[in-house]
Design goal:
Layout lengths: L2 E3 H8 L3 H10 L5 E2 L5 E4 H6 L16 H67 L2 E4 L2 E4 L3 H8 L1
Antiparallel strand pairs: 1-3, 2-3, 4-5
Helix pairs in contact: 1-2
């Protein structure tokens, strides 16, 4: 007395799964549902119906529909994950380019900042020189010669 599922019973008897399912619904064959929702029946029950059982030990069992559905779902998940990885790789490349641009811009900023600092220092020295009103020549103090000094003397 071996337990058979619906597909195994159909192969063993040479009947279709639809026929066996119909006889199950009519109550002519005794069977039980397993924990996964599949029908299981004793081989003795099929013999009681007068069906001759074939030896099906050499025929491999096809995967159950639930297993096939699970495999299909896993393939879909794998495909979605591969798409997500590709999208993340694209984003990483974009971020690398953005980072390189940002680094270049910061470098330019610091260079310009240093140039500005040097320019300000030079300008401050230039203004200090221009503000000096006294020029030393030959050890004597004298006013800086310029347009406004000329006007001051004229006045």
């Amino acid at each position: 007395m071996a337990k058979l599922n619906l597909a195994q019973a159909a192969r063993a008897t040479g009947k279709s799964r639809t026929t066996i399912r119909k006889w199950l619904k009519l109550g002519r064959i005794q069977a039980e549902m397993d924990g996964q929702g599949n029908w299981t029946m004793d081989s003795d029950e099929l013999e009681r119906m007068g069906w001759l059982l074939r030896d099906t030990s050499d025929v491999p069992n096809p995967p159950s529909s639930r297993l096939a559905d699970e495999v299909l779902e896993l393939k879909h998940q794998l495909s979605r994950l591969a798409d997500q990885i590709a999208a993340k790789d694209e984003l990483i490349e974009i971020l690398k380019v953005d980072r390189a641009d940002r680094d270049r811009i910061w470098k330019e900023y610091y260079e310009l900042k240093e140039e500005k600092k040097l320019w300000i220092q030079e300008r401050q020295l230039q203004l200090q020189k221009e503000k000096q009103l006294v020029v030393y020549e030959g050890g004597k103090k004298r006013e800086k010669k310029g347009f406004f000094s000329f006007l001051r003397k004229a006045a």
